[in-house]
Fold:
Amino acid sequence: MEFALKALKSENFRALCQEYGISTKTGYKWRERFLREGLAGLAEESRRPRSSPQQLSQEALCEVVRLKLAHPHWGPRKIRELYLRQHGVVASQSTFKRVLEAAGLTHRRKKRRASEAGRLSSGKRAQGINEIWTVDFKGWWHGTEGRCEPLTVRDEFSRYLLELRRVPNARSQTVQKSFEQLFERHGLPQAIRSDNGAPFASRSAIHGLSRLSAWWVALGINLERGRPGHPQDNAAHERLHRDISRELECLSQEVTQEALDLWRHEFNYQRPHESPGDALPSRTLPQFHSQICRKYR
Structure:
């Protein structure tokens, strides 16, 4: 304020700026703001730039919205990764979030206090391919062709969805046939993690061995089971089932095996997975067969 008042009647403006330790350009800026707005013009203003070289163009905004409409259940982070993969140049994740919020295509989720996670019997997490497979049945639903209860098998380390199969029933013999095909393609895992339900376990048998799990043990595969009533012991697999429920189960038309195969291909080859740094499970596929622990015979 003192500088602005002196600047109105100063005969040597450059010397006045040097006296106050500012450049001539800054001095002229403050004098003009004082003349235009008075004392209110001397208040601190936002330093936020009015434009950004990385700001999305109108065409880019339309492309972001198009990708979101094509994948309505994907969040800003996955949409950003997909945009980066297709176009190379991309803005920050927060920019994508603001764009989708402005378009009304995303909703804020309520933050819930995280409960203490349960541990598995071994407490082990896979450190390599084929160390641990996780298996379960997606909760069934009725379609035009009857009951649908897909069998899901997943490699824990690579996140690669090995199987998404609509089987006629959940009997041990039926599931064993599916696993025979998986073992022939990918080899034997070191361990298989499942819940305590049939056909993976039997509450009335010794050590909970069912016909299917006894066959796994005979092949030299270790068994891991979650605690009864604690789905968080196999949380990543349960999250997979949630995605299937939101994107497949809700469809009005019948979910055929062809639809399951298309969804599995998208999951492995297109869908970014946040945990391994937005990587694709399929990127580990070339090493999948070269790092097989044991071959199935």
In short: The first helix runs from residue 2 to 7. Confidence is low (pLDDT under 50) at residues 114-120, 286-297.
